[in-house]
Amino acid sequence: MDTHVLHFAAPPQPKATSAHSLLAGYGLLVLVVATIFSALDRQILTLLAEPMRHSLGLSDTRLGLLQGVGITLFAGVAAVPLGWLADRYGRRTLLAVCVLVWTAATAACGLATDFTALFLAAIGLGIGEAGLAPIVYGLIPEIVPERRRVLANGIYTLAAILGSGLGMSLSGALVEALDSVRPVLPPVLQAMESWRLAFLAVAVPGPLVALAVLLIRLHPQRGGADAPAAQGEAALSSYFQAHGRTMLCVFGGSGLMALGIAASVNWAPIVAARVFGASTAEVGQGIGLAYLLGTAAGAVLGAAGVKALRRRAGMATPVRVVGIGAVLAALASLLMLTAHSANALYLLFGMQVVALIAGSVLMPTLLQDMTPALLRSRLIAVGTGVTVGLSALSPVLVGALSDLLHGSAHGLLASMAGVGAAAFALSAVVMRWAEKPFVHTVRHIHPGLAQREA
User: Fold this and answer.
1) Which of 81, 200, 349, 442 has the maximum number of C-beta atoms within 10 A of its C-beta?
2) Same domain membership, residue 206 and residue 261
């Protein structure tokens, strides 16, 4: 590890030129655009779930399988091998391939004639998008100069968070616009259902985005792989033995938060349409606006929560803020049972997003505090696997419960609210249990940090 650092530091660093800055800006912009298109392609499957259900005769359980297993679970399974391939064969090339894969899968969704074809297309969508985060976070250090890497990471992370809300808003506007331009489309497209046209439309820019990815230029003299040290395997085993309870509580609590919010993200658009009669465009605008405003408010409240609780909670502050956010999200889920309009549902969904983001903005600090630098990537990957697994379970649970309640509109609302409230409440309990082992782990791994807190 030391020899790698010395070798990397040896060559004199060239001064940044305006050309290098423009190329770095272009590369980061392309990554942000790819992220937004990824969110657009993924969210439109949720937004169009209700017309797909009527057209193809799908049950709520099958809708849940599309969203939970088809996309989320396969994305989690595919992320690790795609990350390995990116490190070995080139991140730009593989990211361009991933864009083409999810583009083709999106178009296949629009052409599907039964559940099997739609499920296979959803799997392709999940696999294509699985490479986005691991590849992008590997590419950013190769695109921007070192002194701007933290800023670039922040810009991309914010775009990834906001991309889901923007994707939903753009999807709703797109569906509305397609109906107005239908008369000028070729005859074969004019005869298609609106939901099929929407899938084909969002797939059109994919090849251009893939080409833009291939045109990204790396910053001069940016180094190669960040391979883990050989001694990491022994250290990993020791960490599991000494701090397994911390991992179980923190990763389990954050995974339950993901399960709770996935219930609303995947089903609130369907509830708004089925229970309250909202149009596709209205759902896209309402959910998208709630997500965007909730993200901004959650980031502010997360920072305020740290200041308010620091003196009382000390080193456990990040864990406690996440736990409090889970309690508030559980209350918002229960209040969904009293919603009498789509706007009320959007507002309560926004409250869930606020609570989720307030905790999410602290997760990087929390994970850095509980993990040694040598093991950080691998330990965070374990947490990501837990989160993906639980969030993939959520849509299936809601769909199955809805079918047990005979698929009624209010039965679906009760299923969504019940799964969300239970998951958030369990998350709050688990994060409370996490406080003591978390503090113990931080004191053991970062004694200097513990001394500053004392």
Assistant:
1) 349
2) no
Q: Give, to the nearest 10 degrees, the angle between helix 232-276 and helix 18-47.
A: 50
**CATH number of the domain enclosing 118:** 1.20.1250.20
CA atoms within 13 A on the CB side of 360: 24
Higher pLDDT, 364 or 78: 78
Phi, psi of 55 (to 5 degrees): -70, -40
Q: Which residues contact 295 (CB under 8 A, 6 or more apart)?
A: 161, 162, 165, 353, 357
186 plus 250 within the same structural domain? no
Closest CA relative to residue 293, chosen from 177, 166, 187:
166
Top pLDDT among 41 and 216 is at 216
Q: What are phi and psi of 158, to 5 degrees?
A: -60, -40
Number of domains in the chain: 2
Task: State how far the Cα of 103 lies from the Cα of 398, in Å rounded to an integer.
Answer: 28
Q: Distance between CA 168 and CA 166 in Å, rounded?
A: 5
Q: Answer whether residue 84 is part of any domain.
A: yes
Lowest mean pLDDT among 42-56, 194-208, 219-233, 338-352: 219-233
Q: How far is CA 445 from CA 330, 375, 435, 454, in A?
A: 33, 12, 15, 15
Cβ-proximal residues to 183 (8 Å cutoff; 6+ apart), any chain:
190
Each residue's pLDDT tens digit, 203-253: 888 999 999 999 888 766 554 444 444 444 456 678 888 888 998 999 899
Q: What per-residue string of b and e applies to 422-437 under the rule 16 or more CB within 10 Å gives b?
A: bbbbbbbebbbbbbeb
Q: How far apart are CA 126 and CA 300, in angstroms?
A: 31
Q: What percent of the chain has pLDDT over 90?
A: 18
- Tell whether 151 is covered by a domain: yes
Q: Which run of H or E residues covers position 26? A: helix 18-47
DSSP designation for 90: -
Look up the domain containing 126 and give its range. Answer: 17-219
- pTM reported for the whole predicted model: 0.64
pLDDT at 9 exceeding the cut of 70: no
Position 403 pLDDT exceeds 70: yes
Whether 227 is covered by a domain: the verdict is: no
Question: Is the same domain home to 180 and 328?
Answer: no
Is the model's pLDDT at 196 over the cut of 70?
Answer: yes
CA distances from 317 to 322, 359, 428, 429 (A): 9, 11, 14, 15
Task: Give yes or no for a contact between 166 and 292, defined as CB atoms under 8 angstroms apart.
Answer: yes
Extended beta strands in 37-185, E state: none
